[in-house]
Amino acid sequence: MPNNTVAADNLFQTNVLLWALLPQPKGSRIVPVLRETGHELVRIECPLRAGLVERAELAKLTVQISQNPAVDLLLVQRNKRYVLVECKSGSFGIATDQAEQARGMLVAALRLSSRISLPADTVAELCYVVPMEETSALDVTLVNLAQTIASLGFGTCPTGALGISIKEDGVYLGLSAPLSGTGECQARLTPEQKVISLSPGEDPRPLYILPWMPKANNALDLQAFREQLRQQLLVWVGRVRVNTTTVLDYEDLLNRMTRNVFKDWGDRSSLNGEVYPVIEKWIAVLVGGDSRIIIRRSSMEVAIRSQEDREQLQEGIRSASLPAPAPEGEQLPLQMHNESSNT
Fold this sequence. Notes:
Elements: H1 3-7, H2 10-21, H3 33-36, E1 39-47, H4 52-59, E2 70-77, E3 82-87, H5 97-110, H6 112-115, E4 124-131, H7 135-151, E5 159-167, E6 170-174, H8 184-188, E7 193-197, H9 223-239, E8 244-249, H10 250-257, H11 268-287, E9 293-295, E10 299-304, H12 307-319
Parallel strand pairs: 3-4, 4-5
Antiparallel strand pairs: 1-2, 2-3, 5-6, 6-7, 8-10, 9-10
Helix pairs in contact: 5-7, 9-12
């Protein structure tokens, strides 16, 4: 896949941001540049829904403003300033659907305290992540949209654009030179900084932390995910006590596989409606209808009555043949990381 296509992929962008936010062991080829500049992860896929009164207010305006946007990531800086982060494949104009969404995010940033129950004096900014070559055009759009929102009496929301670039020696995040936006996040990453070091010719895609997002269209090989799921089930079954019935929540399973990222998933409806069904289908294939296991929508239950029971169940999981394609209508790309044992 060409580097410019990779840099425009939403799932790739999100994983670069996650690597830039999570602590790394000394000597790692990954540098958590966002963490080092004072940013922490609050939520992934964070809905910012307006209340009834606010929705009525927005509906009266002649300018189209999304009433219930959801941002890809919500961050907070050490100074308690929040950053709404949205990943996009490129820039967009002020007369597009993306602009309506962006106006909704600007209003949500200005009213973040009421949208997600924070102190009344909460301050926030909006930052978009795009391929590096798209940052200048997007910066102009965001500044224009922020001026429109201010002219409607909502106040002024700082904006920013961060670029992702893939070079021969690594994956970079930030800006090569300052732009017009006044957001602190982009200012702290100007000039751009290397997040992931690469060897010559190495695939620029990171070892994915987050395996899936509802709007992601990435098509990486599923083999790593399937095998990691198999191994996690084997480990879990090996720890179940004899003569007990034990429940494994899918969220716990996903957190074991993703450095606890799913605990920060903000949109529970997408987790329950889109993520868990994928896990449910793969587990059903792995256990092959074994009567010792009950598979539910968001968890599985196993009853081990003897050591022989355990060994038979584990052997079935080991030998199960997983089909190459994902369950129909779903995809769950993942490349597991080997650099940190913080799971």
